[in-house]
UniProtKB/TrEMBL annotation:
InterPro entries: N-reg_PII-like_a/b, N-reg_PII/ATP_PRibTrfase_C, UPF0166. Belongs to the UPF0166 family. It comes from the Bacteria. This is DUF190 domain-containing protein. Gene3D superfamilies: 3.30.70.120. It holds the Pfam family DUF190. SUPFAM superfamilies: GlnB-like (SSF54913).
Amino acid sequence: MNQENLQQGVHLYFYCHSRAKHDGMLLSEWLLEQARAHGLGGGSIFRAIAGFGRHGVLHEEQFFELADDLPVRIEFLLREEQAELLLQLVRRAGVDATYAYSPASFAVLGGH
């Protein structure tokens, strides 16, 4: 690994249900839009095939029920100050979501 380009930051994950909304938008899309609008690094949304949260309700993808309200994870690799900014935006907006925050080392490979 090329240590010269290795950055220290955080991996910020948000967890919610795929149908969760905030300000009339899907919460997952709202989170990505907030990060983009504030010039923060990239983010991605991942949908689970099954899961349960703090309320103990199991949601799972089934053959005849593919549109169920499945859990999603929205994640970002950010510098610490960027992660704190995004968390402040989410708190101020009164968003109901769970998040995880962990140290990360990351770099971009290639010339792009």
